């Protein structure tokens, strides 16, 4: 006991230490329990690396093509066609109506009631949009008749802002 008195610790006041000692011991038990829990819940190597198949069971996959058969992998079909207005290259002609059926970050495909010449420039914006919504300029890539409508595809001459692209999304 003399070494405790040398440290300035007197055991006469031990009842005052009991709450502090209980907190420290409880913290230690919780830390130990968390280490045991994490040890048993750690990922095992066999979850990430399944056992290799025997050579007799291995099935060879056919080689994948280096390029996709699709020209535009970013094309997204619209869930519902979006009504738009078409005008001439500088948006001065009276607008005609059309429906966007596919869109991507590089262009759109739409159905129109009149044919358009490939290579021509048109402008497009959402039908019923306010005057401050900018027109997006497109170059017509091709136009084919599909039933009673003309399906045309165009590429943006300059990628419009995301706000304008989002307007062409299905509503």
Describe the structure.
This protein is an alpha+beta fold. 25% of the residues lie in helices and 30% in strands. A six-stranded antiparallel beta barrel has the order 1-2-3-6-5-4.
Could you name the key traits of this structure?
alpha+beta; 4 helices; 171 residues; 6-stranded antiparallel β-barrel
Helix count equals: 4
Reading the helices and strands in chain order gives: HHHEEEEEEH
Q: How many β-strands, per DSSP?
A: 6
User: Given the helix and strand composition, which structural class is it?
Assistant: alpha+beta
Rg, rounded, reads 35 Å
Mean pLDDT: 78
| Low-confidence spans | none
Q: How far apart are the termini? A: 82 Å
Tell me, what's the shape? elongated
> How much of the residues is beta strand, in percent?
25-35%
Q: How much helix is in the residues? A: 25-40%
Task: Please summarize the sheet with the most strands.
Answer: 6 strands, antiparallel, barrel
Strand order of the largest sheet: 1-2-3-6-5-4
Please describe the topology of this protein.
Blueprint: H1 2-6, H2 14-41, H3 45-48, E1 76-87, E2 96-103, E3 107-112, E4 121-126, E5 136-146, E6 149-156, H4 162-167
Antiparallel strand pairs: 1-2, 1-4, 2-3, 3-6, 4-5, 5-6
Q: What is this structure, in a nutshell?
A:
With 171 residues, this protein is of the alpha+beta class. The chain contains four helices and six strands, in the order H-H-H-E-E-E-E-E-E-H.
């Amino acid at each position: 006991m003399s070494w405790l008195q040398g440290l300035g610790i007197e055991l006469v006041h031990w009842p005052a230490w009991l709450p502090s000692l209980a907190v420290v011991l409880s913290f230690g038990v919780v830390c130990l329990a968390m280490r045991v829990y994490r040890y048993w819940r750690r990922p095992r190597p066999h979850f990430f690396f399944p056992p290799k198949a025997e050579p007799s069971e291995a099935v060879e996959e056919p080689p994948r093509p280096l390029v996709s058969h699709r020209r535009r992998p970013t094309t997204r079909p619209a869930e519902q066609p979006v009504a738009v207005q078409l005008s001439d290259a500088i948006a001065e002609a009276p607008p005609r109506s059309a429906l966007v059926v596919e869109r991507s970050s590089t262009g759109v495909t739409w159905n129109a009631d009149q044919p358009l010449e490939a290579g021509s420039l048109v402008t497009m914006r959402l039908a019923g949009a306010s005057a401050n919504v900018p027109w997006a300029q497109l170059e017509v890539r091709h136009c084919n008749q599909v039933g009673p409508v003309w399906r045309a595809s165009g590429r943006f001459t300059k990628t419009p802002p995301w706000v304008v692209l989002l307007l062409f999304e299905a509503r």
